[in-house]
Amino acid sequence: MTTRIFVPRDAAARAVGADRVAEALQAEVDRRQLDVTLVRTGSRGLFWLEPMIEVETSAGRVAYGPVKASDVPGLVEAGLSQGVAHPLRVGRPEEIPFLQRQTRVTFARCGVVDPLSLHDYRAHGGYRGLARARDLGPAGTIEEVTASGLRGRGGAGFPAGIKWKTAADAAADRKYVVCNADEGDSGTYADRMLMEGDPFSVIEGMTIAGYAVGAAKGYIYIRSEYPDAIRTMERAVAVARAAGCLNGFDLEIRVGAGAYVCGEETALLESIEGRRGQVRPKPPLPAHKGLFGCPTVINNLVTLSTVPAILADGAKAYAVLGMGRSRGTMPIQIAGNVRHGGLFEAPFGLTLGEIVDEIGGGTRNGRPIRAVQVGGPLGAYFPRALFDTPFDYEAYAARDGLIGHGGVVVFDDSVDMARQARFALEFCGIESCGKCTPCRIGSVRGVETIDRIIDGDRRDANLALIEDLCQTLKFGSLCALGGFTPYPVMSAIRHFPEDFGRPRHAVA
Amino acid sequence: MATWSEAEAREIVRRHSGREGPLLPILHDVQAAFGWVPPEAVRVVADALNLTRAEVHGVVSFYHDFRAGPAGRHVLKLCRAEACQSMGSEAMAQMILDRFGVAWGDTTADGAVTVEPIYCLGLCSCAPAAMLDGEPIGRLDRAVIDDIAREVGR
Ligand SMILES: Cc1cc2nc3c(=O)[nH]c(=O)nc-3n(C[C@H](O)[C@H](O)[C@H](O)COP(=O)(O)O)c2cc1C
Prior knowledge:
heterodimer; A: Glutaredoxin; Rossmann fold; 4 domains; five-stranded mixed beta sheet; 16 strands; B: alpha+beta; Arc Repressor Mutant, subunit A; Glutaredoxin; 2 domains; four-stranded mixed beta sheet; about 45% helix; about 10% strand; binds flavin mononucleotide
């Protein structure tokens, strides 16, 4: 019988040599004339083990990693296709603690299936959600999404069902569904992994959304920094279309052009329409007047990809997971200076300490963790004193932070928090769309002011100026780029005053 | 990369004529064809879409991707965002810039490579990250930098 060996084609796996491993494997298989087929998959998300390859045996899959191309001849010689013992053998993937502790709902298929095989997709539960949606009808589908408690995974955490209902209730002969795959936050890659590892879940989620709100056309806006994801998504749409899976719903992929602010929903719509990605004032809400002036549901890619599973297994199965008003699971992306970096999908509620110390295993270089930035470039830096914060929208907000798209970036004790605060303001200036003065100009003045603080020039006066500037940014910006830049800046000053030339006790 | 050709630019515009909001897809294709967005292209596109040249120029200049001049034979993008910073990306970048003798955004004198900053490639668990001619590179270190230098012929 043919043995299947799985090698990820995920961009991060390719970035550390997965293609070279696949080539070496194929060469070895050819040379030895083995009855082996190579299958390229997404990634399981255990990036310290990438490239991680898996062999299908009678006892299930067995994983090896991290594999270098030069390891391949030895591995094959030892009996890779039987899943034999080897220093690189990490056992059954499901039994690796990092995976075993997870609850994979949105990412159940990622790293397991051939991303472009509709057969695989269906065999692993795909398109059960759409079938159930059709049974429930549009209104029933929206009720189910609402009952699941699913909130937007792009950052703001707005209830998905309520957004859908608003668009469904809007009277118009043309409506749109837009998938936000701009994923600009450093430390995040959940959208990317799904596009590369399970693209049909995006397509099914959008098809369900279109059916529920009465939209016949959908756009997937993917950032240009993700060429692999764009390729896989394009192919998946073509496969789905050819197989008749879109069923009257038309899908088109649009590629961003390197503007972080285009992840903001109204800037994204402007960008699809062919303009500068400038933020629109709200109201009107996109659900009333969105793309080309039509009612539009715009959701993050993870939000949409989660919908098929919610419908397939019922709202209740999803809603029982989580804590407080954060229901279901969140794909937490553990990144930066961390030993076990990867995607960890779990019900809301894990503490930050559990995430970075236990699951992440501390820093990669073994030095103490000093700061963790949660929620991307607009998220706060948390010190160890706040590691008891549970992963939950409200708990982070209560501590002047945010969970955003689920990115967790770990820094060791060599980090200079004044430089991190400076970077937050610099990034705001680079990426500002230019519409709001505090964001466009304030960010630049902020960088200059932090530079003075770093130089030791009238520190107290300049810190007061920064605080004042942050107030202006917070209340004088149309969108969260200006509005939330104060989070990283002020958290750095508040929790790490010594890096700004102040004694620890000087700032509460 | 092709040299400027008005006929080709018009053909690109024509290919997208049935689309809603065709400007960004057109500009991407223009850059793919010519390596940058020449002023002549702005004129052709504005003309075809019934926009002013100022409007099209405004869009071109807004987005970091669109180039106002040709790049080198290779383009190396180095991530400067937080996850990569935590793994020492800034020192690594400085090493690369020094080695190639360029500043951010510059092309080496022999036209071999352009080095550009980028803010996140989604390779944050394999930091520091880079992209060479669209191919992802992770866990940047001295050995990987040597590979990159070899690849671009420096
Ligand atoms: C500066 C800025 C950047 C954003 N970037 C993204 C992004 O890359 N992806 C995303 O889904 N949402 C992003 N958002 C949030 C979107 O505006 C919007 O809330 C989201 O697309 C709604 O989808 P959801 O409800 O499913 O989360 C960003 C917001 C701001 C202010």
